[in-house]
Specification:
single chain; alpha/beta; 4-stranded mixed β-sheet; 8 helices; globular
């Protein structure tokens, strides 16, 4: 079990909002807590951008791409090589801003998470035990990852096999946390 944040996913969400993709259409269906202006406008490439962003987000959250390993090249070069030209164009134009945004949240997470992460890990362990899951921390198939994201609503989304993207506000709220996470444990471990 782990509760962490992820700079590549943070940059992805930043680019989603810069690109003007409606959160209801792709990725976690709420916005980042920071107000980020749409820089893509209503051009004809918006559909392509949304499609590329959705494919990239799907690969990041399903584990097809290791979201934590920094590529040898810059983000926009990596996206271009992966076949995401519209996304690479926006990433190149706003790479500095996206990087600063991701680094700032990662630093805030390191600083503030000590106040709530240990309690959420204890609660997650209790939820697992109540569900009848003897959580083996060494078994890869039983690894639950909670990814902290600065989203504007206290919500969580199950992405991939056992990765949960959760808003910082949800992770800070014990009651809401239990209400969102308990059903996801049932989905992740159906036969327990």
């Amino acid at each position: 079990m782990a509760v962490k944040t992820n700079q590549t996913m943070l940059m992805a969400l930043y680019l989603r909002e810069l690109g003007g993709v409606d959160p209801a259409e792709a990725g976690p269906n709420c916005r980042l807590t920071s107000v980020i202006k749409n820089r893509n406008g209503a051009d004809t490439s918006h559909g392509q951008f949304k499609q590329e962003w959705s494919a990239w987000w799907g690969a990041l959250t399903s584990g097809e791409i290791d979201a934590e390993t920094a590529p040898e090249q810059t983000l926009h070069e990596h996206l271009d090589l992966e076949g995401f030209p519209a996304l690479a164009k926006l990433a190149k134009a706003h790479y500095g801003q996206a990087t600063v945004f991701a680094q700032q949240h990662a630093e805030e997470f390191i600083e503030k998470s000590v106040d709530y992460v240990p309690r959420r890990l204890d609660e997650l362990e209790r939820i697992l035990l109540d569900h009848g899951v003897d959580h083996d921390t060494q078994a890869q198939e039983q690894q639950i990852q909670l990814i902290d994201m600065p989203l504007d609503e206290p919500r969580a989304w199950l992405t991939g096999r056992s990765t949960i993207v959760a808003s910082t506000s949800l992770l800070q709220d014990s009651k809401a946390f239990h209400g969102f996470i308990q059903p996801m444990v049932t989905i992740i471990f159906p036969s327990a």
